[in-house]
Each structure stands twice: as C-alpha cells, then as structure tokens.
Amino acid sequence: MESPAAETRTRNPARTAMGLRTAALRAFFTAWLGAAALVPLLAIRGDLLAGGHAYRQGDWLINLAGGPVRRGLPGEAVLGMARATGADPVALICALQAALVLGLFALLIRAGRRLTDTGAALFLFAGPGCFVAFWAADPDGALRKETLLFTALALLLTAAQSPRRAGALAGGAAALYALACLWHEAMALWLPAMLAALALLTGQGALTRSAARRAGAVMLAGAAAGLGWALAFPATGTPHAQCAALMQLGARVELCHGSIDWTGSGAPRIAETFAYYLTPANAAHFALAAALALAPLAWLARHLGATRTALTGAAICLLPALPLYAVAVDWGRFLTISLTALACLAAIRLSRPGAETAHPPVPLVAVATSLAAALLLTPAHTIGWASFALDLP
Prior knowledge:
Elements lengths: L3 H8 L1 H38 L21 H14 L3 H26 L3 H8 L5 H7 L8 H16 L4 H18 L7 H13 L5 H24 L6 H10 L10 H4 L4 H11 L2 H24 L3 H12 L12 H20 L13 H13 L1 E2 L5 E2 L7
Helix pairs in contact: 2-4, 2-5, 2-6, 4-5, 4-7, 5-16, 5-17, 7-8, 7-9, 7-16, 8-10, 9-10, 9-16, 14-15, 14-16, 15-16
C-alpha cells in the first residue's frame, strides 16, 4: 500500500513537477547570488591588503579635516573611531563594507527563495539591470555608498515577507537610508522609491500606518539633512587637509587620489571629465547596455500583466535621478541604483498575499536568456558598457 505522500505525488504529477522546478530554481538562485557575493568580498580583501582603493574606500573616508565639506560628516566619525581605538580607518571601512555585503546578499537570497516564483527573483536580482551583475562586470563601480541604500531596500523587502517584524525592519531600513543620504547627498533622489516601498507595505497589510509614518519621517529627515549639508558646504578645496588627516592614521597617499581629490574640484574639471567620457562611441555603448538592462524588467512586467504598474514604478525610480546625469559621468551607477530600486519594489509587490496565483511562472528559457545577458553586457559605472564574460573595447 502506497504512503499518503506517494499517493499524492501519483495523483498530482503536475504539482510534483512544479515542486521540483521550484526546488531546483531556489538552489540555483542561492548558488548564483552566493557566487556573485564573492566578487565584492574578494575586492574588499584585495583593497584591505593594498591599503585601500581611491574610490571604493576613499569615497567613504571624505572627512572634515579641512573644514566642512559635503559627504564629510560620516567619514569624520570613522576617523574619530580610528583615533579612539587605534584601528586603521581603511580596515574599519572594509569591515563595514563586508558586513553590508554579507547582510545584503543574505537578505536577497532569503527573499528570492521565499517568492513563490523563484524564476521572477532571478529575473529581478540576477539580470543585467541589478547591482549584482553590475558589480561583477565593473568592480570599480562597486561598494560605493549606495550599498547602504541597497541594504535598506532589502530590509523593506524582508519586511514584506515578515509582517511580525516589519516595524523593526522598516525602522532599520530608515536608519540606513538616512545614513546613506548623509554619506552621499545624491541618495536623497531615491526618497520617492523608499516611500513607495513603505506605501506598498502598508497597502499589503505587512506594515502598520504608524510604523510607516515613523520610518518615512526618518527617511525624509535623512534626505533633507544630506541635501542641506551638501548645499551648504559644496566642494571647498580641502583634499590635502583630508589626506593629511588620513596619513596621520597610517593611510597611503594613493588613497586620496580619487573621491577625496574630487571634493576640491569645480566646474572646469567636471566639464573636462565629460569631454573625455561622453564620446559618440561611449554614448552608443551605454545606450545599448541600458536597453539590455531594461529589457528583462519590461518583459517581466508584460508577462505579469502589470505594465501600467511597472511604468509607475519606473517613473518613481528613474525620473528623480535624471539631474545626476548632467553633473557626473557615473551614468551606469545611477541607472543601476534606479533599476535595483525598481526590482525591489517589484519583489515587494510579488510578496503580497495571493500573488502566487495571480500570474504564470516565468519560463525557464526567459530566465536563462536574462542570466546570459547579465554575463555578457551591463552598463559600465561611467558612460559606456562593461562585461563579466567578454573583453569589450
């Protein structure tokens, strides 16, 4: 006589096949993102051994040694901690980055495995538009301060799947987002995306309105503080003093030849940089990579029958950041931040009660196509394209 489980499998072969498909996709999703996490973790290890990277760690160590300067408050706090403990400031930043990377990827893996359709999770977080592929293809654009924003979004996604802890998770996300804005004022431009995530959580019943209001107030205060400080103290020509403060703590002078040096730059250097990067070839390469990054998300929206909702989300995530493209050449970073925010909003929406029966699963051939695209081409962190698998010009 067959056991009840065996009898159920015999009577429901389609359900058994779907269960096997889901288990295989969840294992693959875990392995793919786990392997992808090694890229930034190995970069952090290499940077620590080399004494720091001028952008990946230098960007976090802008400080107030030469007077008030935009993005300098949190870096000054890191220097204060280094003085108090005798620790290497580069090591402190590397430790923070490693903790954020481990937490971020763990949250995304958990969230993707808990979605009913893991194929959709692969589309959202392993496709060519998300930071996962971008960091692997162009490590020079990885581990910047938007890592705080990504982790905040991942916490809100976790809140959608864990209503009992949603209040605490939303509070943690708000605190991280406020810190991100203080560390880089441009993160304030993704405030609409963060507030949209809170609105989705309350609309789906995962978060109380009072908790959403508290989290939203912290986010708004952080964005206002970051923008206000940056407007009050723009580039002030203090890189040498900042560098001297770091060297007193044992840092290499090469650490200063990146983001810290840029704090003393004005319009002439920005114009020179645009002239160097904004060539017809680079613009064409970026346009192609951007189209490929957007294509899987557009296809998924159509597959889910949510084109109008996706267009609203795209407007929320993409349009507020458009001014950045006129003042800096990090176009790939800006686009990836917007598309990662859009992916998190979509995943929150797919986590709502009843979503598992609202759409058919994503076909495996579509998943494979998206993964192949992520390996072959993504936007570069500046104007252009990048690839993990190809040696592009």
